[in-house]
Amino acid sequence: MILINLLPHREAARRRRRDAYNAALVASALVGGVVVVGLFLWLQASIFSQDATNVILKTEITKLEAQIKDIAGLETEIASLKARQQAVEDLQSDRNAPLHLLTELVQQLPEGVYITKMVQADQAVTLNGVAQTNERVSELLRNLSNNTPWFAKPELVEIVAGTIGAAREQKRVSNFVMRVRLVRSIEAEKSAANPEAAPSPPKKP
After folding, report:
1. Which of 87, 167, 189, 205 has the smallest CB count inside 10 Å?
2. Cα torsion 15, 16, 20, 26: sign
3. Longest dimension (CA), the chain
4. E strand or H helix at 38
5. Higher pLDDT among residues 100 and 116, named by residue
6. Beta-bridge partner residues of 171
7. Are strands 151-164 and 124-131 parallel, antiparallel or unpaired?
8. 165: which residues sit within 8 A by CB, 6+ positions away?
9. For 56-65, how does the pLDDT look when each residue is reduced to its tens digit (9 = 90+)?
10. Close Cβ partners of 123 (under 8 Å, ≥ 6 residues apart)
11. DSSP of 102-168, one letter per residue?
12. Which residues, 6+ apart, have CB-to-CB distance to 114 below 8 Å?
């Protein structure tokens, strides 16, 4: 017996293909939606985690900045205390500086040299004096430079020829101005205790 299908098979096949295509589109859309939602949720979680990390970092940075300010304040305070301590030590060590100045100056004055004026500003001492000859002034410079740890960097500022005495008994003299640095007591005592550590005097040409 021969069966003949009189139904429109082409139309049925077309409908099946269309239904399969639509089902594939729906499935693809669902899969795409799930992927998009998954990516969105992952990004949101990453952003939330990064925000939390940023908050922690900001908190730690704020703490570190406060600690840095405290450390800077402590360093400033320590420096100020050290400066005060040094000032007190300098005052204590320099209590006898005038005595050393006068004693050493008297000991280093050559014969024929007289000091007429002396001015001290901090550690700088300016000497005005009269000498019988220029050689006496040079000798005083050498003495202040080489023979005592209490003076440093003697410098002849000015030397001018002059005269003293009455008109008939006038004598030629050298009026001079000299600067010298008074060494602090601590440094002078160290130099006196250890002469080898003191700078050697310059050699004569």
Report:
1. 205
2. positive
3. 178
4. helix 9-93
5. 116
6. 164
7. unpaired
8. 171
9. 999 999 999 8
10. 181, 182, 183, 184
11. HHHHHHHPPTTEEEEEEEEETTEEEEEEEESSHHHHHHHHHHHHHS-TTEEEEEEEEEEEEEES-ST
12. 129, 130, 131
